[in-house]
Each structure stands twice: as C-alpha cells, then as structure tokens.
Amino acid sequence: MGGESLFLLPAAIFLATLALYPFVELLRMSVSDVTVYDIFKAWPFIGASGVTSVASTFDFREAAVNSVIYVLLVVGVGLGGGLAAAITLWHGGRMASFTLAVMVFSWALPALISGIAWRFLLDPRGMVDNLLGQLHVGPIYWLVDGHLPILSVALVNAWTVVPFATLVFRAALLDLPTETLAAAEVDGARPFQALWFIILPLLRPCILVLAVLALVYAFKSFDFIYIMTFGGPGTSSETLPFLSYRLAFQLYQYSQGAAVALITMAVVLVLAVVYTRMVRGEERG
Amino acid sequence: MSRTFRPRWIAGAGTGLLVVLYGLPFLWLVLTSLKTDTEIFASGGGIIFQPTFENYQSVVDQQLIQACVNSAIIATGTTLITLALATPAAYALARVKGWMLNIGLSAIIILQITPQPASLIPLYRVLGTWNLLGSQLGVILADSALLLPFCIVLLRPFFLAVPKEVEEAGIVDGASKWRVFWGIVLPITTNGIATVATIIFFIAWGEFLYAITFLTDQTQYPISVLIASQIGLYGIRWSNMMTIAVVASLPILVIYAFSHRRLREGLALGSVR
Fold first, then answer.
1. For chain A, how are helix, strand and coil distributed in percent, rounded to 5?
2. What pTM was estimated for this model as a whole?
3. Is the Cβ pair B89, A20 closer than 8 Å?
4. Are B32 and A120 inside 8 Å of each other by CB?
5. Residue B272: which of A21, A98, A171 has the nearest Cβ?
6. Which domains does chain A have, with CATH numbers?
7. Interchain pair B228, A112: CB under 8 A
8. Tens-digit pLDDT profile for residues B156-215
9. CA of B89 to nearest chain A CA: how many angstroms apart?
10. Every domain of chain B and the residues it spans
11. What is the CATH number of domain B61-272?
12. Cβ neighbours of A198 (radius 10 Å)
C-alpha cells in the first residue's frame, strides 16, 4: 500500500482539472441560465427547470427515438456481423489473415475519413446507387429520404464496429475447448445446432462484455452523424449527443445542451448498471 | 473440426463478401482521387478511366502540408502525454484493491460515457482562463483528457497479465516500487503499450471537434479540420475532398502496415479479459 497510489497521482490530477472539473461545470450549467455573454462570468441559478423543459420538446423526443434506433442497430449489426465474420474466418489461412487485416484497417481509420468516404459512396450518383442501378433498383436516397438517413448512418457506424467484434470473437473461438466441439461433431450435430447449443453459450461472457462496450460507444457516438448528415435533413437524423451539440453551438442554449448531455449519460449509466446486475444475478443462478 | 460446422463454400463466399465490403470503400476513395470532376459520377461503374494526378496537384499546397505537420504535432503530443500519464495509472489500477480501485474505475466509467460535445463548453472555459484557446497545446491537453480514461482501460489488462512472481523477485532484491515498474514491468509490457499508443495516435489524428472549436488561426488547423470544415457546405467538391481524405489516411496506412499483426493480437487479448 502507498507505493502504487503515487503512480495514480499524475493521471488523477490531470483528469481532475481537464475532465472531472468540466463535468462538474456541465452539471452546474444544466441548472443555470448561461448565455453567450456570461460564459466566462458567473452563471445565474435556475434549478431543474431547464432539464424538465428540454425533456418535453419535440426535438428531444425525436432525438431520443433516433438514439434508441441507432444504438440497437450498431449493437445488433455490429455484434451479429462480428460473430458471423469471426466464424467465417475461424481457422482460415492466408486469405483469412488478409481479410482481417483489411477489416481492421477500416476500424483504425478515423470516423472522419470513413464517414466522408461513405457519404460519397451513398450519394445518389455514387457507387452504391450506381451498382443498384445495374440491378434496376433505386436510386435510393440513403442520406436524404425520410427516416432512411439515421438507419444509413447507424449501419456505417456498425460497419466500423464489426472488425473489432470479429477480432474479439475470433480470439474467443480459437480458445474454445476442442474436445467439446469434436464431441458435438461425433454426435452428428448440424452446423446450426452446434452454433446455437454449444458455441453461443460458450461465447456468452464475451458477447456480454462486447454488448456493454458497444452500447456505451453507440450512445455517445457523434462523429458519424456530424460528418454524414449533420443531423439532417432538418433535424430528422439527430441523436441525443448531436442535439446537445446543436442546442449549445447553433442555438446558444447552453443550459439545455448540458441538460440533454446529462440525460443521455444518465440513461447509459442506468442501462449499463441494470445490465451488469442482470448478468451477474443470472450467473449466480 | 470447424470444417463440418462451417462448410467450405460458405466460408469462401463469406470471406469474399467481407473483402468487398471492407476493401472496396477505401479502394474507391483512392480511385476517385485519381479521377477528374466529370469522371467521378460517370455512369457504368467508373472503373475504367485514365488516372490523373491533377487533384493532387491542385490540393497539395502550402496549407495542406502545414495541416499535415499540425496533425503530426497534435497527434504525437497527445499520444506522448496520454501514454506518460496512463501507463503508471493503469499499472496502479491493476495492483490496488478496495476503495481506491472502486473510485478509480467509477471515475473512468463516468468519463467514458460522457459524449464529447458535452465537454466542449466547460473545456472552452478552462482553456480560456489558462490562455490556451487558439493554441495547439490547448488542443493537445483537451485530446489527452478525452483519451486518457480509454487509454487506461486499454492498458490495464496488459499489467494484470504480468505474473506476480516476476515482480516479487524484484521486491526481494530490494528494488523500490518505481524500479520494479520501470525495470521489470515495463520491459515485458512494451508490446501492449506500443499497441495502445498506436490506437491513441490514430484517434488523435482523426479528432476534429476540439480542434475546430478551440483553434482560431487557420495556419494551426490539423488536416482533420480541413475535411470537417467543408462538411456543412453545399456542393462539396468530391474530387478534392476525396484527395484530401486519401492524404489524411496515408500516415495511418503506413503505420498500420507495420503494426497490424501486433495490433490485432493486442486488441483481441486486451478486451477478452
């Protein structure tokens, strides 16, 4: 005891000034009336009225619904795609290794670059609609038409989650006890049966950890919306983090922006806690 | 044994699909940067064309080179500060137990779930009082604060994997905790630390929200801001945009080419634990 805590000190001081203090300021901002003029001055206190008033707006409800859709798609497609890809590349040789290298590169590219590339590909004159046109489908206005933009952006975001999930699932698959799999094979299990009754239960811990990570990541995801639709057309593809950004930086409603950010975080926190409790309770039997 | 569970043709078709799904977008980005404005939306696939370096000639100028230098400064500075602070902290969090561990991990979780825009205004105030608005150091500090919790989360498993006996041998020899950390633990975790450093560098290279908000002088903009600042405009000039995007991905491509094997192993190892 004693020695190690000194190791924590530099990071703790740094985070206290540049991360925890801003977080406390965010809390304070959500209960104050902050305008452009007094950003560097004292903030008049208004209590929780900012939080409650913003939560009842149409924009907030729209963004909340979008956020839920977005998170479900990113987590579902990200994990499902990752598992499918991991099984595909399970014991592959050179080709699997090459495919993984290409996939992980897409994960390593910043959201800024993959976002702008996909925005170009999904342009009505772009490659995707061009290919669909060859099949006499479309053009589909991926980033413009009705509720499609939020789905398109979520799928692109899921596209970047898949490589990471693939790596983790593949490592877990390679760790599976070979005797169990061999026994299932001897017993004549079909591929789907083996997947459902043997492989998935063994991967459970891994799936749960990834699900929490993806959930937290997807809820606060901001870059892809900013780059691909900027919340538009109109406000139709805004998620909660983007709404919080727009309130603060385009409408200068700093308190409301802070309130939306805090509500988002509270939801993530509650979901993560409930989820881990559920998982633990289940494991205890 | 996986042969039966995963018929050969499915594996083959799946692998092909993955290569197309993940290879094609970046390949298309590169091809587009070699096309003229009129060719990029030409119908019929657009695979056959006369490649030209016109876009590069018009895009690569003093400003772009300066932006790449700025990106390098910001990303390197952020990586150095983040790693210097996160390494000892992650080691400590892999060794302490009880209340200190609980407080540490809770703080990290809170910071991890904070959406980045939420910290913009508070950080604007903090950096303003320190006179660091409009300076790259301000952006480096903000980026480091953003990435430090994530960096600790990534590093901790590597220290948890160090066997106790290795360290105990050092303690028996009478070495101080710092000497044990510096002389014994760090050398055997170099690979893991390098992996995490690579990831932090990549993220810092692509960060644009802090940079676009805290920097005022165009000559200080990193390349990410050059891309992000054109987003809101109507009628993006795609040939130019894709060319800048290719330039911005080059450093990542080069670093990735040298480190992808380690990166893949490190990622899989770190998160399963």
1. 75, 0, 25
2. 0.91
3. no
4. yes
5. A171
6. 57-284 (1.10.3720.10)
7. yes
8. 888 988 888 888 877 777 778 888 888 888 998 888 899 999 999 999 999 999 999 999
9. 4
10. 61-272
11. 1.10.3720.10
12. 19
